[in-house]
Amino acid sequence: MTQRKNVLFIMADQLRADHLACYGHPHIRTPNLDALAAKGVRFDRAFVNSGVCGPSRMSYYTGRYPSTHGATWNRVPLSVGEVTMGEYLRAGGHKLVLAGKTHIMVDHKGLERLALDGGSELARLLKTGGFEEIDRYDGHHEPGEESGYPAYLRRHGYQSDDPWTDFVISARGPDGETVSGWHMRNARYPSLVEEKHSETAYMTDQALSFMERMGDEPWVLHLSYVKPHWPYIAPAPYHDMYSAEQCLPVVRNDAELNNAHPVVEAYRQQEECVSFASDTCVNTVRPAYQGLITQLDDHLGRLFDFMSRNGLMDNTLIIFTADHGDFLGDHWLGEKELFYDTVQRVPFIVYDPSPEANATRGKVDDRMVEAVDVLPTMLSWLGLPLASHRLEGRDLQPLLHGKQPPWRDCVFSELDYSYRLARVIRDKSPSNAKAWSLRSDRWRYVYWLDEPEQLYDLHADPEQFNDLGRSAEHEHIREECRERLLQWFTSLKRRTTVTEEEVERGTNAYKKAGVFFGQW
Amino acid sequence: MTQRKNVLFIMADQLRADHLACYGHPHIRTPNLDALAAKGVRFDRAFVNSGVCGPSRMSYYTGRYPSTHGATWNRVPLSVGEVTMGEYLRAGGHKLVLAGKTHIMVDHKGLERLALDGGSELARLLKTGGFEEIDRYDGHHEPGEESGYPAYLRRHGYQSDDPWTDFVISARGPDGETVSGWHMRNARYPSLVEEKHSETAYMTDQALSFMERMGDEPWVLHLSYVKPHWPYIAPAPYHDMYSAEQCLPVVRNDAELNNAHPVVEAYRQQEECVSFASDTCVNTVRPAYQGLITQLDDHLGRLFDFMSRNGLMDNTLIIFTADHGDFLGDHWLGEKELFYDTVQRVPFIVYDPSPEANATRGKVDDRMVEAVDVLPTMLSWLGLPLASHRLEGRDLQPLLHGKQPPWRDCVFSELDYSYRLARVIRDKSPSNAKAWSLRSDRWRYVYWLDEPEQLYDLHADPEQFNDLGRSAEHEHIREECRERLLQWFTSLKRRTTVTEEEVERGTNAYKKAGVFFGQW
After folding, report:
1. Rg (alpha carbons) of chain B, rounded to whole number
2. Which helix (H) or strand (E) holds B316?
3. Among residues 83-142 of chain A, which lie with CB inside 8 Å of chain B?
4. Do you find a cis peptide bond into B452, omega within 30 degrees of 0?
5. Which side of chain A, N or C, has fewer Cβ within a 10 Å radius?
């Protein structure tokens, strides 16, 4: 009899790797994630495959890079032709349950094309991206019927048609007026929602209720928090838990603004970057951002305690990560998307309860991992087949088990900025506003369509201050990077309608099919 | 009122460009195709996007390269997620009618996944690749119920369960015995089928009947012959219309066999290449191959005559091309697939009856065109929108109308040889048996996964005898080619769920969606 196995795949939204204590932050308190890392493996060099929610998450959910899955930005639906985590799991007899955010956009045209726009079970699953939603909540807009959060808030006394806007992201200003968390100046005030009714608390409650309901039944849960993503406003006491002095120093210098890369320069003209150019903004937002992280950690403590008490720490694979980081003013930038470790590097902690993983408990692994690795790792843990004709990521289980397989020496990330003002500023068409980046131990390289390249020597310049993208003496490095990028493109998996095993069986089998060409 | 417009898209199977009189063959008689070229434009440098039936045709039918459409070889079904010619035409109010071959493989798993495996109209269309089949006939295997050809043969006295095998590709040997066209030694004998009942005659009859039935109704017809593809056996009088002396000299030399590219060397161990290494095989097959071409031309004459008599030459766009060529012993190779113009270059004649095209009638255009250009050209002629978020080819209408738009300077083709014996000989996995080729005016370059590159200087060596793929002094050329290949990869269209117009409308439109991030 197979032992019961669960998976808990936790995602934070817009959480920088360097904002956890176990990743070296000198002031943030994240004892529960630190404890998870002490029991599992902390991957120190984990990267997303796109620095923005939608495409990054679709890489987690499909095990494929954005150039393959095609959902290259937040507003681009994932094609119904793409197979997601939920579908692989379902084929193996598991349900993939969701509490929180996915950023799945429904491919309405694709469904309509295939006459799948009715109310069928299949259409429902395709619309959710394969998730069984116990509570889907994408945050930062009024939730629809898929989330019980607005009704929950009203039940707890937050009377409003839109309690999220009126309470969760609102605060009381100095003169008693209501102010909005959409304005970053208000990040200093506590949210009008009580902490126990906040988004993070609510979604943790959902996960706890789910685990209680499941009892001894096995499960796979994606617990996906919308925080510490903006609007940056924390409930008391987290709103003033940290001072500006307890934040990392902002990483930027004046030299960066001279001779900047034209797309980076265009990004800096966008409102979020203009705002974050002010120290006041940085010093107002960062403490709230940190408070939201400690709050998240506190609730994870509640969850992990429950799991420990109920034996779930013995049979549950736990993956904790994020969809991307946040500039928070670094490099005179706000938000995300661009190719700096600030945004591209994420926390990535894996706890594998199996005895095979005992050798690596508490270890830090600096091999490079990517978002696309989560799905194959999960399938492998559950003993399900890896769809090697589709999945572009790698199973991390050998690493968790202390093995030393040949491993990648660089990671890849992509950006489609066609929907952004920066694209308009650069006067480009929606089809040529794209970039691909390669990040090796030493180099961060970016290939932009119709724009100069970027190159950073991370050994000499770990903060990425000095762009060597137009330096003549580094042309040979850029050339090597282009070669490596070409190799990566040739490795993408487009032959999705046949498995590798089917190809093996069909190789040189013409005569069996009654075809006898080539005989004299 | 819009004038009625038809499209006749004619494809020959495995027809080399240099095997038509208008393309310079000194002996073959193809007066009807020559006349078509004299009325239209003959593209002298037209190339397929893969040198093998399935992926090449799927590029014609989707307007996308194999790396994008994913049907990389004959046995790889086109994903139901891919939109084909028939679907674009249907959206514009046209039916795409088929007489002949498509090589569409049904994506059974994709249909099953989307619960489209029933008998619905939609499932039927997805199974045919969007074609309305008046008679689908892929040749070289026993046709299924989709073709009326076996019943037709039986009605005309060819009594057999499998009249194709017993008559169409059979012949009478010197001692009166029945011999098979599967054996190339028998290419010298006439087929047991009467010419008027042959595949080429039958399919032409289908097209004629269709045009008669349509009367004054507009139509779009894909007339897709299975010849001169093997089995190489022609009905009388075409079987001995040409002598070996009337064939092009075989293009090969002993030097090619020394230090050959390892994959080309592996191909040469496959049966078709072993057979074609003999002059006897070359001299037996080529005359029959040429006979099949003249036969095809004769039937096209019959079709064009009918069209002229019925006014159809005034309102029908005619495109004549092929899915790839045939080595016929050149370079010690048989069949196709590899990256020589012999196989990659195809005849490509376009007749546009509109007055705008009068300036180019009878002209030879040496701008480079590709298989992916057919679909956008057809849509443009019909006044239908070009799906610029999916189509990777270019509209040829400006060229037909004498314009000089900025144009491509190279073409791309691909190969997945994972099903071939050559892959086994090279001891490779099914995932790393791929190649991409770039062909510019001067260079033919091939990038192979885990194999040396190939490079030919077509100015100095138009026949591709001298592989410079490992020549140190040509490294800078190969590097340029790799750069160009990388650019091409970055241009592929994977963001298929939104149109470029939708991206434009959604650009910088966050606030309209109630999202106000970045404000201080």
Report:
1. 23
2. strand B316-322
3. 83, 87, 107, 109-110, 113-116, 120, 122, 140-142
4. no
5. N
If you ran DSSP here, which 8-state letter would residue B503 be given? H
User: Nearest Cα to B287, choosing from B256, B253, B329?
Assistant: B329
Q: Answer for the pair B140, B162: CB distance below 8 angstroms, yes or no.
A: no
- Element counts in chain A: helices (H) and strands (E): 18, 16
What are A269's two structure tokens? Answer: 């003209």
Six-digit token string for A165: 């806007």
CB-facing half-sphere around the CA of A384: CA atoms within 13 A: 18
Q: Which of A285, A498, A499 to mutate to test the interface with B (most CBs of B within 10 A)?
A: A498
Angle at A484 between CA A482 and CA A485, to 5 degrees: 60
Cα first-last separation, chain B: 57
Instruction: Calculate helix-pair angle for B53-62, B374-381, nearest 10 degrees.
Output: 30
In this complex, the residue of A335, A436, A482 whose CB is nearest that of residue B518 is A335
Cβ <8 Å between A419 and B67: no
Q: Which two tokens stand for residue B412?
A: 């791309």
Q: What does the block give as tokens for B61?
A: 């039918």
Tally of CB atoms within 10 A around A309: 9
Average pLDDT score, chain B = 96
Residue B373: its pLDDT value, please?
Answer: 98
DSSP A306-341: HHHHTTGGGTEEEEEEES----TTGGG--SSBSSSH
Model pLDDT for residues A233-270, shown as the tens digit of each residue? 999 999 999 999 999 999 999 999 998 999 999 999 99
Give the model confidence (pLDDT) of B495-520 as tens digits: 999 999 999 999 988 888 788 899 99
From the list A412, A373, A337, A322, the residue with the least C-alpha distance to A17 is A322
Partner B contacted by A75 (CB < 8 A): yes
Look at the block and give the residue holding tokens 């005030």.
Answer: A189
Q: pTM to 2 decimals?
A: 0.96
Looking at residue A1, its pLDDT comes to: 36
Contact present, B483 and A475 (Cβ < 8 Å):
no
A278 touching B (Cβ < 8 Å): yes
Contacts of B424 in chain A (CB under 8 A): 507-508
The whole-angstrom distance between residue A381's C-alpha and the CA centroid of its chain comes to 21
d(CA B519, CA B281): 77
DSSP summary character for residue A248: P
Tokens of A169: 């992201």
Q: Which two tokens stand for residue B396?
A: 């040829």
Instruction: Check whether B276 has a pLDDT greater than 60.
Output: yes
C-alpha A17/C-alpha A321 separation (Å) is: 9
Residue B513 is predicted with a pLDDT of 79
Cβ–Cβ under 8 Å, residues B161 and B35: no
CB B435 within 8 A of CB B415: yes
pLDDT of residue A143: 55
A195-208 mean pLDDT: 98
Determine how β-strand B220-224 pairs with β-strand B96-100.
parallel
Structure-block tokens of residue B338: 């590899």
Do B498 and A76 count as a contact with CB atoms less than 8 A apart?
yes
What type of residue sits at position B194? E
% of chain A beyond a pLDDT of 90: 95
Residue showing tokens 């040979």: A476
What domains can you pick out in chain B, each with its CATH number?
6-250+263-504 (3.40.720.10)
- Of B48, B47, B57, nearest in space to B78 by CA: B57
Contacts of A519 in chain B (CB under 8 A): 182-184, 271, 275
End-to-end CA distance of chain A: 57
Residues 6+ apart with CB under 8 A from A14: A53, A228, A229, A230, A322, A323, A324, A325, A326, A336
Residues B76, A498: C-beta atoms closer than 8 Å:
yes
Query: CB of A381 within 8 A of CB of A397?
Result: yes
